[in-house]
Design brief:
about 150 residues, mainly beta, about 45% strand, globular
């Protein structure tokens, strides 16, 4: 589980849910610094294909990662409805491009189900587990695997 997991005094976990290509994902709220509307980024030559570019956040230049591309779901075509979730990963700050933020939910840690064995090893690395909410499955992202510490986004 995440080492920055946000827990309430009752042991509950708070997560931010969002959509990518119409599918539900979530991350621990403890990683989230802010949620911003889409703004165009500055392209960076020879950056990995999942890096949309750089943005200036109040004097801090940070990479913006297309989570759809990083997760193998295809490139996003950002529009004004997209948002960037600014997250802190260790000493790094990075933006994640997603379609929309859906909700902030409180869940019990035991509600998380393991990633099914039918998934590829890379999928298992990126997905910490799955929460079932109403009719939707929310895949909990393991941010350390998506953006390994020490390697940065680039």
């Amino acid at each position: 589980m995440s080492d920055v997991m946000e827990q309430t005094s009752t042991g509950l976990r708070e997560i931010v849910s969002f959509t990518i290509k119409g599918q539900g994902f979530c991350i621990d709220i403890g990683h989230v610094l802010e949620i911003r509307g889409w703004t165009p980024t500055t392209k960076l030559p020879h950056a990995p294909d999942y890096v949309t570019g750089l943005m200036n956040l109040r004097g801090t230049v940070l990479p913006v990662i297309d989570l759809s591309m990083r997760l193998g779901l295809g490139r996003s075509e950002p529009n004004p409805r997209h948002v960037i979730i600014i997250v802190k990963l260790g000493d790094s700050t990075v933006g994640f491009l997603v379609e929309a933020v859906s909700d902030i939910l409180t869940v019990r840690p035991e509600e998380m189900k393991p990633t099914p064995d039918v998934a590829s090893n890379q999928t298992k690395d990126f997905i910490e587990g799955v929460f079932a909410r109403d009719e939707q499955l929310l895949r909990a992202l393991d941010l350390k695997s998506i953006m390994p510490a020490g390697q940065g986004a680039l």
